[in-house]
């Protein structure tokens, strides 16, 4: 399915405000409510919209550390990688995980209350995951740009 200008406008609007009413969405993209609702349903059913979620405040939740962990494996075995990926899915403080190229095998974004909490997580959880032989952490000092949605290329 090819996206037209109106489809793109709808996607951009709901990325910035997932709770926008159909009326405000229709107004923002220059449609009446019924055609706008139909387009939104079509975009959902065709998989352009995977879901809706709230953006939570790290400070209100007392999450003081955002870290990026480069994880390396000693042995590159498909079963071990699959097991690692399954286990990562069940660890809430790992907010993203990417299988990457380069000197590391995976890049994880991890959140913690403080450095002590992060250190315990690395020691007790991350290093205990299947296949992990080393972890190198990079700590975020300040977030300059937060995820604000995908660009429509």
TrEMBL record:
Molecular-function GO terms, alphabetical: sequence-specific DNA binding
GO BP, sorted A to Z: regulation of DNA-templated transcription; response to amino acid
GO CC terms: cytosol
Lineage: superkingdom: Bacteria
Keywords: DNA-binding, Transcription, Transcription regulation
Pfam families with a match to the protein in the record: AsnC_trans_reg (PF01037), HTH_24 (PF13412)
Keyword Nucleotidyltransferase: no
SUPFAM superfamilies per the UniProt record, alphabetical: Dimeric alpha+beta barrel, Winged helix' DNA-binding domain
PROSITE patterns: HTH_ASNC_2 (PS50956)
Domain HTH asnC-type: 3-66
Protein name as catalogued: Lrp/AsnC family transcriptional regulator
């Amino acid at each position: 399915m090819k996206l037209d200008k109106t489809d793109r406008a709808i996607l951009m609007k709901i990325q910035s405000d997932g709770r926008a009413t159909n009326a405000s969405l229709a107004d923002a993209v220059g449609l009446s409510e019924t055609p706008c609702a139909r387009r939104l349903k079509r975009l959902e059913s065709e998989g352009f919209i995977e879901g809706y979620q709230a953006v939570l405040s790290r400070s209100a939740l007392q999450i003081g550390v955002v870290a990026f962990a480069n994880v390396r494996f000693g042995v590159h075995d498909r079963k071990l990688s699959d097991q690692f990926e399954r286990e990562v899915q069940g660890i809430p403080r790992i907010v993203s995980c990417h299988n990457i190229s380069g000197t590391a095998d995976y890049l994880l974004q991890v959140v913690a209350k403080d450095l002590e909490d992060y250190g315990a997580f690395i020691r007790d959880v991350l290093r205990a995951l299947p296949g992990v032989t080393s972890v190198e952490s990079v700590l975020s000092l300040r977030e300059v740009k937060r995820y604000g949605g995908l660009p429509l290329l």
